[in-house]
């Protein structure tokens, strides 16, 4: 009789951080730091996603965070691009409320 191995598929979750979007809370953490240019940071985050996809083949969840992503005007475009690039089961937004 052959031994059947129960192998679970590894679930990959990652974070997409919107550095420098500077939400309206103006807290000490964000207001005292220079996070650089947000468009450059976004492209770097997409490059990280692409690298992760190339190495794993599947991303189950992407969490979008950084300041308050809901205040970033191009958030729908980012979500669309993440979905097209990774087709995750879940996209989660971490916001201030």
Can you write the helix and strand succession as a string? EHHEHE
| Total helical segments | 3
Q: Which term fits the overall shape?
A: elongated
**Into which percent range does the helicity of residues fall?**
25-40%
Q: What's the alpha carbon Rg, rounded to whole Å?
A: 17 Å
Please tell me the overall pLDDT: 81
Number of strands: 3
Distance between the terminal alpha carbons, to the nearest Å?
A: 56 Å
Question: Low-confidence stretches at least 5 residues in length (pLDDT < 50)?
Answer: 1-8
Structural class: alpha/beta
Largest sheet: 3 strands, parallel
Strand ordering within the main sheet: 1-2-3
What does this structure look like?
By secondary structure, this protein is α/β, with parallel strands linked by helices. It has helices spanning 28-31, 38-56, 75-86, and strands spanning 13-17, 61-65, 90-93. The protein is elongated, with a radius of gyration of 17 Å. Residues 1-8 have low confidence and may be disordered.
In terms of topology, how is this protein built?
Elements: E1 13-17, H1 28-31, H2 38-56, E2 61-65, H3 75-86, E3 90-93
Parallel strand pairs: 1-2, 2-3
Keywords:
3-stranded parallel β-sheet; elongated; 3 strands; alpha/beta; 97 residues; disordered N terminus
């Amino acid at each position: 009789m052959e031994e059947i191995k129960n192998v679970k598929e590894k679930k990959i979750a990652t974070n997409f951080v919107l550095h420098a979007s500077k939400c309206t809370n103006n807290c000490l953490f964000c207001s005292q730091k220079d996070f650089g240019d947000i468009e450059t940071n976004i492209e770097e985050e997409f490059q990280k996603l692409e690298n992760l996809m190339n190495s794993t083949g599947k991303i189950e969840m992407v969490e979008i965070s950084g300041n308050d992503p809901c205040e970033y005007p191009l958030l729908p475009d980012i979500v669309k691009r993440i979905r097209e690039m990774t087709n995750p089961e879940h996209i989660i937004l971490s916001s201030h409320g």
